[in-house]
Amino acid sequence: MFQEIEIPIDDRQLYGHLFYPENPKAWIVFAHGSGSSRKSLRNNWVAEKLNKEGFATLLFDLLTVEEDSIFENRFDIDLLSTRLTVATNWLLGSTFYHQEPIAYFGASTGAAAAIVSAAKKPDLPLYAIVSRGGRPDLAREENLKKIEVPTLLIVGGHDGEVIQLNEYARKKIMTAKLVLVPKATHLFEESGALDEVVKLTTDWLNIHLPRNQDQSIQT
User: Fold this and answer.
1) DSSP for the chain, written as a single string
2) Using N-to-C axis directions, what is the helix angle for 41-52 and 193-207, rounded to 10°?
3) Quick check: is 219 in a domain?
4) Which of 18, 71, 154, 168 has the fewest Cβ atoms nearer than 10 Å?
5) How many independent structural domains does the chain possess?
6) Are strands 12-19 and 2-9 parallel, antiparallel or unpaired?
């Protein structure tokens, strides 16, 4: 079922939408990258594929239109992570949620927001994090070292410096795995690249569902 939603934040509203199949395996909360929104074509495409695999998804705007017009806000990881935490708590208190495990899917700066949210709020029922072309390095070393949730870092094989930045994060997050998608660039626009992202994400989310938490991460 598809539902448009509003998440209250102070005197403003963050707009989003969710989709929940019957008896979902888990909820996947998306954190988009700088300059993007709940309308991100790539994230919505990934979400649709995850819905078909039995996952519920929540996509929302981390910033209001006015906030997004200020360029610096797009890279304010503390602000973005706070918004992600607010949205997660909203979901936990909503009628849509029924004790399912939760995972984060972050792209670009959204990946850093997901890591900081997980590091600062270890009581959230998170069981996995996936980063697509992310900038986990922006989460800062002290937050990277706090992450205990299985974390998958997906990077395009032709994404240059971003590979190095994710390798840095992988060494700091003890539960992380880094996977390169051959021939893909930062936006995974190449034929089949985003399909590979979906496959890697689905496998990661399924492997680390709570019933399989005793399984070790493959390296």
Assistant:
1) -EEEEEEEETTEEEEEEEE--SS-S-EEEEE--TT--TT-HHHHHHHHHHHHTT-EEEEE-SS-HHHHTSGGGGG-HHHHHHHHHHHHHHHHTSTT--S--EEEEEETHHHHHHHHHHHH-TTS-EEEEEEES--GGGG-HHHHTT--S-EEEEEETT-THHHHHHHHHHHH-TTEEEEEETT--TT--STTHHHHHHHHHHHHHHHTSGGGTTSPPP-
2) 50
3) no
4) 71
5) 1
6) antiparallel
Q: How confident is the model at residue 219 (pLDDT cuts 50, 70, 90)?
A: very low
CATH of the domain at 97: 3.40.50.1820
> In this structure, what token pair is assigned to residue 99?
């004790």
pLDDT digits (tens, 9 = 90+) for 48-67: 999 999 999 999 999 988 99
Cα 9 to Cα 12: distance, rounded to the nearest angstrom: 5
CA 213 from centre of chain: 19
In this structure, the dihedral spanned by the alpha carbons of residues 89, 90, 96 and 102, taken in order and rounded to 10 degrees, is: -30
- As a whole-number percent, the residues of the chain with pLDDT over 70 amount to 95
